[in-house]
Amino acid sequence: MPYTFIDNIENNYYQIIFKKHIHMAYISGKKLISIYSLNDESINSDIEKFHFDSFGKYGDIIIINGDTPIDKYIKQAEVLIKSNKKSIFIINKINSCSKENIIKLRDFVQKLKSDDNIKFILPFTDDTVRRGMINILLSDEFFNICIPHPDYSYEIQSNKNQPENDDSLIKNILRSEEDIEKLKTYHSSLYLAISYINKNYSDDITLEDVAKASYVSPSHLSYLFRKKLNTKFKKVLFILRLNKAKEIIMNNPRMTLTNIAIQVGFYDLSHFGKVYRKYEGVNVSEIRNNIIYNLL
């Protein structure tokens, strides 16, 4: 379900969120605003309506068609910079852009100064990520916005104000591949972060590694984990490791706990046991023994 501006009270909450994020992006020093949505076409009309409602406060809108050469838009931006005029360039259908055009745009955006009044808006979808277009563009120059899916956003918002030691929300999110997939409709950077951890849980990964894969800084990723999901990077890593460990125990209960610990990324059995007891409330050996007993 793509985000759209809907003029009824029930959906005003999402309209307000979108307007707030766009405003924050425009007044930030960032030169390129990336917006993740299930449907990039709806975003263009939403942005245009936002500008219409703002009476040109943030500058004129210029649409960049993905299938046309980028050079003329770069020249247009250069003229506007010299005239000190505010303008917003929307990249329409980035999936139609050539790699050459994307690289030219990236190089131009990186040269912009913080006091320039030019900003570029990049609506992108899952297909954009799959094609690797985002990898070319996203950097510290970007302000990322995610358009949430109303139903899933409400589910998380309703549960994120739980006590700090209550792990029920993050455990539900990490319960299965399908549940992790839902994150892409809530927040793109968190989805990319948790997907990366889920694929690399057995390695000695760091917050910096995950932040790089999520196109945000380590400090901002820590903020997102804390503010959006009431959790921390290490907690996500440990819960995913424990999920895999429980799966191995269920399928092969006679494997030694030491082998299981090393296989899922813990450096020894003692560390594995402490983490398991902390997050599951029982000893891992008891769980394994109960499974073996039931098989007899």
Automatic annotation (TrEMBL):
PANTHER family, A to Z: ARAC-FAMILY TRANSCRIPTIONAL REGULATOR (PTHR43280), HTH-TYPE TRANSCRIPTIONAL ACTIVATOR RHAS (PTHR43280:SF28)
Annotated keywords: DNA-binding, Transcription, Transcription regulation
Gene3D superfamilies per record: Homeodomain-like
Molecular function as annotated in GO: DNA-binding transcription factor activity; sequence-specific DNA binding
Protein name: Helix-turn-helix domain-containing protein
Residues annotated as domain HTH araC/xylS-type: 191-290
Lineage: Bacteria, Pseudomonadati, Pseudomonadota, Gammaproteobacteria, Vibrionales
